[in-house]
Automatic annotation (TrEMBL):
The keyword Magnesium does not apply. The lineage of its organism: Bacteria, Pseudomonadati, Pseudomonadota, Alphaproteobacteria, Hyphomicrobiales. This is Diadenosine tetraphosphate (Ap4A) hydrolase. Residues 40-109 form the HIT domain. It comes from Bradyrhizobium erythrophlei. It holds the Pfam family HIT.
Amino acid sequence: MPSDAPAWSLHSQLTKDTIDIGDLPLCRVLVVKDAHYPWLLLVPRRPEAVEIIDLDEVEQAQLMTEISRTARALKDVTHCDKLNIAALGNAVPQLHVHLIARRTSDIAWPRPVWGVAPPLAHDAEEVQKFISALRRKIWLG
């Protein structure tokens, strides 16, 4: 990357709403601070990326690999009924991909999760167990 290229940083709203659990080759992996759902974000560490098409083709392929790897881990850890995977970006323009483990018993089922209920704070011990399990499954063993 040229020295005059803009530096990547996480959008302030994503910083506020998530817990950083580490980096894959392309993406920062974050847990959304809402215990209603096991909910992750993947944020490609590329300055000014708003849309998937803002990534070059190699980065797009890497993003799909990281989505698949993380989604498999999320499904394995949560034993969810359905995975919701989406890149919306209507409220936060920085490119990010939502991976949400859904259960037929969750508060929003079968509707989308947005706006159904205010975020529920995580139990500190439970979220650390969740993060540890994910980190083992995704990349750290």
